[in-house]
Amino acid sequence: MPILEVIALDAQDAVAAQAGGADRLELVADMASDGLTPSVATFKEVLASVDIPVRVMLRDAKGFAPADLKQLRRAAAELREAGATEFVLGFLDAGGEIDEGVTLNLAAELEGCAWTFHRALDNSNDVFRSWATVQTLGCDTVLAAGSAKGVEDGIENLKELVAQAPPALLVGGGLQARHVPELLAAGVNGFHVGSAVRPSGWDSPVDSASVREWVNRLV
């Protein structure tokens, strides 16, 4: 069955997403920076509020290179100690290729955890070459739009990528309702939304009715 992952910023978002039928959360902070690592306190509040899986972002700067890898590793360890078992991460080097060294360095803190390689793939030099690299890194999921411009521009690439699984393809980044039938027909069964379930954008909380509408689209 298709799954719906919803971006949450706090426990209020998490509760609304679960009430709407979301299958999983991606917990982040600071969407003005495209999503950074949340605090341990926020993670604990979310964990105590819902019983669906929570994937926690490991990212400390806008863009696709870490500002302080050692601090990110400490954050990962602290989040694991607080009960996190699923994460989201992924980095590019200065040349626009998947930064295997940095990604694996941080992933070393996550032994035994499931994790998603995020949209760094879309912003790399070549999404197909990068997919082949990501397949070797140990993630179980790749969050992608198929293009840095979003799903509208990348949908044909997504149709090709889904056929190359594993890892599983989770489609997000400018995802709109009208894209869903075409993606389902191509075999995509993972969908990721953020602002699409916030009627007034990122300044408003997740709306459970909007989440339910998305869930119903995937049936």
Automatic annotation (TrEMBL):
The record's listing under SUPFAM superfamilies reads: CutC-like
User: Which residues constitute the signal peptide according to the record?
Assistant: none
Superkingdom is Bacteria
> Which Pfam families does the annotation name?
CutC
Q: Where do the coiled-coil regions begin and end?
A: none
Q: Tell me which PANTHER family the record gives.
A: COPPER HOMEOSTASIS PROTEIN CUTC, COPPER HOMEOSTASIS PROTEIN CUTC HOMOLOG
Family per similarity comment = Belongs to the CutC family.
Q: What is this protein called?
A: Copper homeostasis protein cutC homolog
